[in-house]
């Protein structure tokens, strides 16, 4: 199994997974704290809808055209979720997020149903193509994520404020809709790039599972983030090794590994608790 570490395609896939895990583990903390766990899945599906639309229009080989369509669809979703937050009084925001996800998924099926390579493109939207991603693509995505990371470092105070206490932020004069839209827009840029590499399912896993692992391990934000990063990196390498050794798809293997490690972490933390508190 360890011989796989010497394979060039494995090394590039591992690098791509680590790049994705780095930014997603951070954004996942915002999502978990906001309590809108499926917004990432919905935005990822909106990105997949943009890719499906480019295929249906006959532009499947136009890489930038597909990316811009996918990004445009995620920005539509970002604007919708930013507007709905605080306005969905009679139904929870998660209900609207679920509607967006299910509708976007249905539209992907409808758009790809009549295309010659529809089944293959549908598979790609779900599980991505980690083992065939080009090194140039990884470099572009890494640079893009570095830019998004710089924006979040620069604007970390208002972003954390509207995540932790949106009503208080609104009372203090923050324009919550605009800050929410900016957050979801940067989130959408990340998700759009990630879906083309890792697929919708692993994007969701990277955003939620490492963040949950960090939150379960400690209440300190900085330490929880470090735990989430380490968790995502270890799971990525283990999942890719499992994929190569058993000849399985890369993204689902990483996702299952993430979940298995989370279950193991929960079991270990439970066993460490004093007997009387269980």
Describe the structure.
With 278 residues, this protein is mainly α. It has a single domain, classed as ABC transporter involved in vitamin B12 uptake, BtuC. It is 81% helix and 0% strand. The chain has eleven helices and no strands. Helix 2 packs parallel to helix 4, helix 9 crosses helix 10 and helix 9 crosses helix 11. It is globular. It starts with 7 loop residues before the first helix and ends in a 6-residue tail after the last helix.
What characteristics describe this protein?
278 residues, mainly alpha, ABC transporter involved in vitamin B12 uptake, BtuC, 0% strand
Radius of gyration: 19 Å
Tally of domains: 1
Percentage of residues in DSSP E strands: under 5%
- Helix count equals 11
What is the second-level CATH architecture?
Orthogonal Bundle
* Pattern of helices and strands: HHHHHHHHHHH
Relevant CATH superfamily: ABC transporter involved in vitamin B12 uptake, BtuC
Which CATH C-level class is it? Mainly Alpha
Specify the structural class: mainly alpha
The count of strands amounts to 0
Task: Give start-end ranges of low-pLDDT stretches.
Answer: none
Averaged pLDDT: 82
Which geometry do the CA atoms define?
globular
Helix content: over 70%
> If you consult CATH, what is the topology?
ABC transporter involved in vitamin B12 uptake, BtuC
Biggest β-sheet strands, sense, barrel: none
Our measurement of the CA-to-CA distance between the termini, rounded to an integer number of angstroms, reads: 38 Å
């Amino acid at each position: 199994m360890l011989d796989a570490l010497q394979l060039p395609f494995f090394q590039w896939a591992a690098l791509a997974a680590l790049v994705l895990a780095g930014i997603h583990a951070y954004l996942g903390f915002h999502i978990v704290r906001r309590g809108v766990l499926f917004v990432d899945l919905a935005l990822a599906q909106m990105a997949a809808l943009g890719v499906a639309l480019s295929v249906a229009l006959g532009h499947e080989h136009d890489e930038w055209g597909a990316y811009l369509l996918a990004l445009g669809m995620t920005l539509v979703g970002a604007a919708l979720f930013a507007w709905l937050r605080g306005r969905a009084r009679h139904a929870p925001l998660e209900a609207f997020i679920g509607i967006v996800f299910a509708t976007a998924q249905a539209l992907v099926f409808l758009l790809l149903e009549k295309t010659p390579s529809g089944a293959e493109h549908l598979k790609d939207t779900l599980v991505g193509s980690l083992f065939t991603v080009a090194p140039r693509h990884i470099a572009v995505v890494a640079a893009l994520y570095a830019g998004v990371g710089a924006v979040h470092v620069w604007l970390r105070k208002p972003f954390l404020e509207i995540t932790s206490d949106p009503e208080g932020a609104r009372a203090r004069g923050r324009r919550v809709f605009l800050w929410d839209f900016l957050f979801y827009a940067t989130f959408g840029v990340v998700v759009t790039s990630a879906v083309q590499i890792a697929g919708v399912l692993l994007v969701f896993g990277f955003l939620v599972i490492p963040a949950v692992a960090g939150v379960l391990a400690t209440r300190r934000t900085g330490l929880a983030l470090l735990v989430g990063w380490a968790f995502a990196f270890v799971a990525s390498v283990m999942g890719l090794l499992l994929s190569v050794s058993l000849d399985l798809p890369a993204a689902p293997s990483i996702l299952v590994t993430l979940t298995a490690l989370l279950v193991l972490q929960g079991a270990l933390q439970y066993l460490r608790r004093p007997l009387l508190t269980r």
